[in-house]
Design goal:
The protein is α+β, with helices and mostly antiparallel strands and 115 residues long. 29% of the residues lie in helices and 43% in strands. It contains two helices and five strands. It has a five-stranded antiparallel beta sheet, with helices on one face. A hairpin with a 4-residue loop joins strand 3 and strand 4 (60-71). It is elongated. 23% of the residues are buried. This is DUF6054 family protein. Pfam families: DUF6054. InterPro entries: DUF6054.
């Protein structure tokens, strides 16, 4: 499992979410948006998206869970967690695919934030 968290200022929540929904699947030939969920309570909102892609290194599929949270006009909190890259039964080996998926999302996010 690999984790990345970031606080994002001065970006529109909806535009950022839509861009990530579009760009993450476009970043890999096998990546897809699998599911999503949205919550809103007062001025607070939370969106969760689950992506999956095939890992050539591990010979299996990996998931990326992307969570975005914002309360009112406060900065957006983003969390990205990858999982599923191991082939062992009792301990994790070969987590290269998880780290690679997360690195791709980090680079993509940097590009989006520079726009």
């Amino acid at each position: 499992m690999a984790i990345f968290e970031k606080t994002i200022r001065n970006k529109n929540f909806d535009k950022l979410l839509r861009k990530l929904e579009q760009e993450i699947p476009d970043s890999s030939w096998s990546a897809d948006l699998e599911a999503g969920s949205d919550f809103k309570e007062g001025d607070a909102r939370c969106s969760v998206r689950v992506f999956e892609r095939y890992s050539m290194m591990g010979g299996n599929r990996l998931s990326l869970t992307l969570t975005m949270f914002q309360n009112g006009d406060n900065p957006i909190r983003l969390s990205a967690i990858t999982a599923g890259g191991s082939q062992a039964v009792f301990f994790k080996i070969n987590t290269i695919g998880e780290e690679s998926f997360l690195d791709d999302v980090k680079k993509l996010l940097e590009e989006i934030l520079e726009e």
